[in-house]
Amino acid sequence: MLGLKQSLSLSSNRALGGWTPDNEGTDLVAWYKNKEGIVLEGSDVSRWTDSSSNDHHMAQAAEEKQPAYNASTGALTFDATHSQSLQTATQLSISGEFTIGVRLNPSSVNIVFLGDNTEPTEFLKIMTATSLRVSTDGSLVDITVNDGDLTADNYLVVTRNSSNLVSLYINGTLQTDTETLAGTVDIDAIGVRRINNNPYDGIIKEVQIYRTTSLALTNNVNNYLSNL
For the domain that residue 143 is a member of, what is the CATH number? Predict the structure, then answer.
């Protein structure tokens, strides 16, 4: 098994002197960082190490379920026909505010990019090119896109504030539609929901998860992801 670490690459150094997710301290729940923390088995990813201090490492022991890796871009490519995914043994649970940022380029729709493969009805799913579904504790909301295409190469930021208002940003643009969704968000997988349903199809370059939200944090995450 080969560990690939490029902490001194130009890409990973892009934010020196500026904001990084580490600046958020204990509010940072997990950080699956572009081009870092990648452990390879051949040319496929067996583990994406959490770059936060919380050790929510995402792993996959089954070779056919390991996503492919592009070292030049840091892209993990998931193949839905093999239900490729990564999973952590230490579940992430967020009961209040959250901010979730992801850089991705999906190849289809009705696919989950973050979910829980042990608890039911916990996921973030690209339903259609213009609809994002967030589900938790048996309840769900669909956010309709008015500016953008969810099947394109995008950076997405999903937030929930103290009033349980869920908002979506696509490439830095706040979408008009907002929805209300309470409950504890559970995440233990990248690329599937329970049990191996709606597997993700396409590229994921980075995932950031926080247990808070603010306009400043949202702007920082959007700016950071835009540079990947």
Answer: 2.60.120.200
3 within domain boundaries: no
Question: Is the C-alpha dihedral spanning 19, 97, 158, 177 positive or negative?
Answer: negative
Q: List, in sequence order, the alpha helices (H) in 28-107.
A: none
Q: Is the dihedral of CA 159, 143, 227, 110 positive or negative?
A: positive
Cα 119–chain centre separation: 18
User: Does residue 85 lie within any of the structural domains?
Assistant: yes
| Residue at 21 is within a domain | no
pTM higher than 0.90 for the full model? yes
Q: Which residues contact 6 (CB under 8 A, 6 or more apart)?
A: 12, 35, 36, 71
What does the angle CA 126 – CA 102 – CA 57 come to, to the nearest 5 degrees? 110
**Per the structure, how many domains does the chain have?**
1
Give the CA radius of gyration of the chain: 16
Note down the domain range covering 77: 28-226
- At residue 81 the predicted structure's pLDDT band, cuts being 50, 70 and 90, is very high
Give residue 63's Cα distance to chain centre. Answer: 22
Cα 172 to Cα 223: distance, rounded to the nearest angstrom: 8
